[in-house]
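Trying the structure run again after the queue cleared.
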Amino acid sequence: MNLLKVSFLTFISTVIKISAGLIINKAVSVYIGPTGIALLGQFQNSSQVAMTVAQGGINTGVTKYTSEYGAASEELPKLWSAAAKLTLCCSIVVSIFLILGSNYLSEYILKQDKYGYVFVTFGFTVIFFTINQLLLSILNGLKEIKTYIAINIIQSIYALFFTTLLIILYGLDGALVALVTNQSVVFVIVLWQLRKHKLIIMKNFKDKFDNEQCKKLLSYSAIALTSACTVPVSTLLIRDYIGDNLSWSAAGYWQSMWYISSMYLMVVTTALSTYYLPRLSEITSKVELRTEIKNGYLIIIPIVVILSISIFLLREFIVWLLFTDDFKPMIELFKWQLIGDVVKVASWLSGFLLIARGAVKLTIFSEIFFSTTFFFLSVYFLNHYGLVGMSYAYTVNYVGHFLFMFYFTRRNILY
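Done. Tokens:
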């Protein structure tokens, strides 16, 4: 299945996911407001860290090596068994941390201790999330795109009804509860979808722990955990800085702009993670690798440019549609945020190549360095230009990221 076919299928899935997200977002903006959106952003960043650690950060490695070994390989049960055991151990540790530290986490992340019950609930349900993601990573590696996408569509539809209902009934509390309990029901859905699968069966997860497979997976764990402890943490710190130095409503405007970027770029990122990582992992010829990357730029970048221009022209309508009149101050953020999005996707194409070729140290360095520069650029531009400075910082940071990725992929991988 080539990039165009994968892009089409993921486009359908992503349209459904985006549509569900837009309805949920409208409910959040109406029933919770800008400050609530900012706090939800804080929780989502912290939960992203927790969930990545609970997964052991190995799912990218699971996808890569499942694809590399192939469906007929005798190595798959060893790989999957090692992955399952690592995931279970990490999930238990994170679960205990969330439950025991619930009150402190509530006070630090959500600025009030009354949400401790959310973190306790999260502690009991995080295992379902980690198993879901492990199974989806295996499906991705097996290139069973139709099943992979079908599960994602079902998840989106369920989240739409469940989350919207809880937001309408309970406001911010409902949104938080929905975020930490969705996976419990989705886990049952995933098991049902895979009930007749020929390879994803219990016996293929029962092999003895294989140290060699563990080492391979943990090399990717380092990348994922670094990303989990840099990107979400940097945005959490930035949002805190905006809240403390401007207002939490301003932090909500920035979070809303960030949300728009992430939603429309989902069309691209889903196609990249679904197609590019397995594809780049299996290519051995540098000539073929250069061709694949070139085709990626020729297909993906024009799509992002068209989407960005369309969103910019419709920015006032989008704010009206997705939010409320309280969010109009965010309109000034669109121009440079959207320019930054185009540059960001260009840098991602090279970034996926680094991951696929196992450039662990370089990937980790780039994650840490550019998350750090994003924070300091945000502080600088916010202090000098106000909230619109956040979009300046975003674009400048990703221009640097693109130049870094372009240089090192050409030097170390493509030539």
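The two ends are 26 Å apart (CA to CA). Worth checking whether this holds up in the mutant runs.
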